[in-house]
Amino acid sequence: MALSGAGRLPSKEMVKRRRLLRIEDIITKMQDDKTGGVPIRTVKSFLSKIPSVVTGTDVVQWLMKNLSIEDPVEAIHLGSLIAAQGYIFPISDHVLTMKDDGTFYRFQAPYFWPSNCWEPENTDYAIYLCKRTMQNKARLELADYEAENLARLQRAFARKWEFIFMQAEAQVKIDRKKDKTERKILDSQERAFWDVHRPVPGCVNTTEMDIRKCRRLKNPQKVKKSVYGVTEESQAQSPVHVLSQPIRKTTKEDIRKQITFLNTQIDRHCLKMSKVAESLIAYTEQYMEYDPLITPAEPSNPWISDDVALWDIEMSKEPSQQRVKRWGFSFDEILKDQVGRDQFLRFLESEFSSENLRFWLAVQDLKKQPLQDVAKRVEEIWQEFLAPGAPSAINLDSHSYEITSQNVKDGGRYTFEDAQEHIYKLMKSDSYARFLRSNAYQDLLLAKKKPESEQGRRTSLEKFTRSVCCWRRVRMAAAFHPRGGFLPAVGKVAGGQAPHGPDAVLLTVPTAGPGPGPADPTGRRRRSTSADRVSLRGDLVTVKEKE
Amino acid sequence: MSPRHRQMATEALHENETLASLKSEAESLKGKLEEERAKLHDVELHQVAERVEALGQFVMKTRRTLKGHGNKVLCMDWCKDKRRIVSSSQDGKVIVWDSFTTNKEHAVTMPCTWVMACAYAPSGCAIACGFKQFSCLSLPSSWDYSGLDNKCSVYPLTFDKNENMAAKKKSVAMHTNYLSACSFTNSDMQILTASGDGTCALWDVESGQLLQSFHGHGADVLCLDLAPSETGNTFVSGGCDKKAMVWDMRSGQCVQAFETHESDINSVRYYPSGDAFASGSDDATCRLYDLRADREVAIYSKESIIFGASSVDFSLSGRLLFAGYNDYTINVWDVLKGSRVSILFGHENRVSTLRVSPDGTAFCSGSWDHTLRVWA
């Protein structure tokens, strides 16, 4: 098949295909005189003329004007991409980029456009390189990498080189018949085609495709076409065709499902756009001060300053005012933050209603268990919180209780969904609201400072041991206590026993629950005293009971 | 016509009629749904957002460049510790980095494998990889996609220098086509996967058992994201059928669906409140869908952006949407106003993956140029 020219008069089919691809739409418009395309000229140079070229500057200007691009850098980048894809090329360079200067570019012939699904074989490439060596033109001299490629191909195709040589000769003959100017143009377009499919080493190969999408973009049924119309045995040997996903015919069942779905959607209560907009704006505005990419983080963004102070502060047990403030944004916020959760738990303990949060946490934990452990945990939760005479009985309405006791029989991970939702709503509307009004929370929010004298005395070791030994509870990721079961409320354990004996062991996981001892009725923390004895053995700390 | 023939003819007609009438019923319902939704469309987000203060001048730069992959980086994920990262590439390599120091802490190479998805476990003690493995005897030519295994494996991270990371690997998920995405739920014990076979699935890591499967996409599923709620049990997925679907993890049912993109949806990500999500598509646009309004509420596009968006993520407040594109750039969008705030150059090939860090102090992008960059 003969190579077509600059493609000024495309067929209807080509026009249709182009509209589907924005890049081709742009390239077509760029070449259109009538709608203010880039001026395409023939330029005089030394002894000859350079036909059908545009300058980089003109292309960049056109892109800026027609695609509303303000920054020339962006236009140059886009221009380079269009070149790299193979729609426009520098006439004197194998490397396909765009420069904002007087460099000359030419438009690629639609025959060579990527949308034609070219996957040229090495035989074609060999024919091309071979053909180039047959022509005595300085501008057609092989670049180093091309010479290397040719040498490799000669070795690879040693046995059929005669065939390739003949094809190359045939091509040269065809080319010679053409008009000199036309040949200049065609030669350059052909070279640009190969620059895309066999790029200069180090350049991006834009023909590489997303492996997930290859199946659909390539057409396994079509025999790969040759640039030079060569058909040979190797192409007859069809590669392994993957049966593309068989398109299931829509069944009546499918449509019935769709109808059910649509009906559900129609019945759905939706919010008006104005309300939704207000909500999105309100959320964003509330959190903007917490967004380090908008409001610079204090003391600094570690990625910018190379200082991890910010992360160290976040790991510490003393929450910043900003962090405490966030707990007040929504119930989820306090549940998300380990430190916040602990504060809330402590508050609930003071109100003797911690079983609600502990139940909620236990159910969250249940959902994270491996399948094999689920049934056992379901039973444990039931016993601890819901069974008649449960030690940490939670308050459920009879309907919810009924559903839950039914679910327990099956013992799946969603057994307590209904109950959990109920308890969540209860805590949110009741305890959480009170917590936010409590002295404990307000003190943290206003960052009430502790008396000066006390702060001065503490050394870092004391601070560490204080944070560890004031804790009487075992704190592990799963919120379980070493003897099994759930976190008992301080002072409120079945049988009235202390949670653990004198030699209980505490894992000092750095992010483990921190902090000060149980709140006294006024919500203030209890001070540590030197009477608290602690010994450190590597990672494990033995807590000695204070009483 | 004999009575028998008449009966058969009537039945045949009835059969055909039912399908056709069902189809037309569905069409009319779609029309009605559109009408109902349009009634609530009283204003555009960007119009209401006019009163919001404009963002200042944006200066974001590459703060770290991670080099070590020998091929296209396809996926990455952050560890909850805000600095570690796991990344995977097309040559089967999976690397765990401390991106703050740029040190590589773990690496494993799976021969003849495309690792298209990877995820960090919430505990930080394991990673998961979704991959497609080929027989090593016949390296894939550009035509052979039959492949052998489409799996998701979990690797515990060990600091024992002598132990090979691959030693304790656990095979968790199996699909009938490539795995495009994988994510742990809020536990190390469950993994959610999306596949080219058109389905998503929830797996129990310990036993490898399938807990729930999600059918509904009409083509490859390319991405998924779990809702950020503490109590929620939903996730959103996007596919080559141009649809974004929201699923109930408990029942396996699709609860909401959105179909406004004009091409494959490559990436979906929830807005931080969980009330909305963004998507990035091959149609060169990103869109915002609100779950309460049950419709698309914003489009992020420009005439000059003509290449597909491969991955999107929100900044912590949801004000910014970072989107990586196939034109090697990252565009930063003002979510509320709909305008582009900044364009970031740096990668030398397509940006394939992008995630904001857990505390929002930075975001990381991975590219076909074999590198990852952390921006702040």
From TrEMBL, chain A:
<dbReference type="GO" id="GO:0008277">
    <property type="term" value="P:regulation of G protein-coupled receptor signaling pathway"/>
</dbReference>
<dbReference type="Pfam" id="PF18148">
    <property type="entry name" value="RGS_DHEX"/>
</dbReference>
<dbReference type="GO" id="GO:0035556">
    <property type="term" value="P:intracellular signal transduction"/>
</dbReference>
<dbReference type="InterPro" id="IPR047016">
    <property type="entry name" value="RGS6/7/9/11"/>
</dbReference>
<keyword id="KW-0734">Signal transduction inhibitor</keyword>
<dbReference type="InterPro" id="IPR036284">
    <property type="entry name" value="GGL_sf"/>
</dbReference>
<dbReference type="InterPro" id="IPR047017">
    <property type="entry name" value="RGS6/7/9/11_DHEX_sf"/>
</dbReference>
<dbReference type="GO" id="GO:0005886">
    <property type="term" value="C:plasma membrane"/>
</dbReference>
<dbReference type="GO" id="GO:0005096">
    <property type="term" value="F:GTPase activator activity"/>
</dbReference>
<feature type="domain" description="RGS">
    <location>
        <begin position="330"/>
        <end position="445"/>
    </location>
</feature>
<feature type="domain" description="DEP">
    <location>
        <begin position="34"/>
        <end position="109"/>
    </location>
</feature>
<protein>
    <submittedName>
        <fullName>Regulator of G protein signaling 6</fullName>
    </submittedName>
</protein>
<dbReference type="InterPro" id="IPR016137">
    <property type="entry name" value="RGS"/>
</dbReference>
<feature type="region of interest" description="Disordered">
    <location>
        <begin position="509"/>
        <end position="547"/>
    </location>
</feature>
<keyword id="KW-0343">GTPase activation</keyword>
<dbReference type="InterPro" id="IPR036390">
    <property type="entry name" value="WH_DNA-bd_sf"/>
</dbReference>
<dbReference type="GO" id="GO:0009968">
    <property type="term" value="P:negative regulation of signal transduction"/>
</dbReference>
<dbReference type="InterPro" id="IPR015898">
    <property type="entry name" value="G-protein_gamma-like_dom"/>
</dbReference>
<dbReference type="Pfam" id="PF00631">
    <property type="entry name" value="G-gamma"/>
</dbReference>
<dbReference type="InterPro" id="IPR044926">
    <property type="entry name" value="RGS_subdomain_2"/>
</dbReference>
<dbReference type="GO" id="GO:0003924">
    <property type="term" value="F:GTPase activity"/>
</dbReference>
<dbReference type="InterPro" id="IPR036388">
    <property type="entry name" value="WH-like_DNA-bd_sf"/>
</dbReference>
Automatic annotation (TrEMBL), chain B:
<keyword id="KW-0175">Coiled coil</keyword>
<keyword id="KW-0807">Transducer</keyword>
<comment type="function">
    <text>Enhances GTPase-activating protein (GAP) activity of regulator of G protein signaling (RGS) proteins, such as RGS7 and RGS9, hence involved in the termination of the signaling initiated by the G protein coupled receptors (GPCRs) by accelerating the GTP hydrolysis on the G-alpha subunits, thereby promoting their inactivation. Increases RGS7 GTPase-activating protein (GAP) activity, thereby regulating mood and cognition. Increases RGS9 GTPase-activating protein (GAP) activity, hence contributes to the deactivation of G protein signaling initiated by D(2) dopamine receptors.</text>
</comment>
<dbReference type="GO" id="GO:0007165">
    <property type="term" value="P:signal transduction"/>
</dbReference>
<feature type="repeat" description="WD">
    <location>
        <begin position="344"/>
        <end position="376"/>
    </location>
</feature>
<dbReference type="InterPro" id="IPR001632">
    <property type="entry name" value="WD40_G-protein_beta-like"/>
</dbReference>
<keyword id="KW-0677">Repeat</keyword>
<feature type="repeat" description="WD">
    <location>
        <begin position="258"/>
        <end position="299"/>
    </location>
</feature>
<dbReference type="InterPro" id="IPR016346">
    <property type="entry name" value="G-protein_beta_1-5"/>
</dbReference>
<dbReference type="InterPro" id="IPR036322">
    <property type="entry name" value="WD40_repeat_dom_sf"/>
</dbReference>
<dbReference type="Pfam" id="PF25391">
    <property type="entry name" value="WD40_Gbeta"/>
</dbReference>
<feature type="coiled-coil region">
    <location>
        <begin position="16"/>
        <end position="46"/>
    </location>
</feature>
<feature type="repeat" description="WD">
    <location>
        <begin position="172"/>
        <end position="213"/>
    </location>
</feature>
<feature type="repeat" description="WD">
    <location>
        <begin position="66"/>
        <end position="98"/>
    </location>
</feature>
<dbReference type="InterPro" id="IPR015943">
    <property type="entry name" value="WD40/YVTN_repeat-like_dom_sf"/>
</dbReference>
<feature type="repeat" description="WD">
    <location>
        <begin position="214"/>
        <end position="257"/>
    </location>
</feature>
<dbReference type="InterPro" id="IPR019775">
    <property type="entry name" value="WD40_repeat_CS"/>
</dbReference>
<dbReference type="InterPro" id="IPR001680">
    <property type="entry name" value="WD40_rpt"/>
</dbReference>
<protein>
    <recommendedName>
        <fullName>Guanine nucleotide-binding protein subunit beta-5</fullName>
    </recommendedName>
</protein>
<comment type="similarity">
    <text>Belongs to the WD repeat G protein beta family.</text>
</comment>
<feature type="repeat" description="WD">
    <location>
        <begin position="311"/>
        <end position="343"/>
    </location>
</feature>
<dbReference type="InterPro" id="IPR020472">
    <property type="entry name" value="WD40_PAC1"/>
</dbReference>
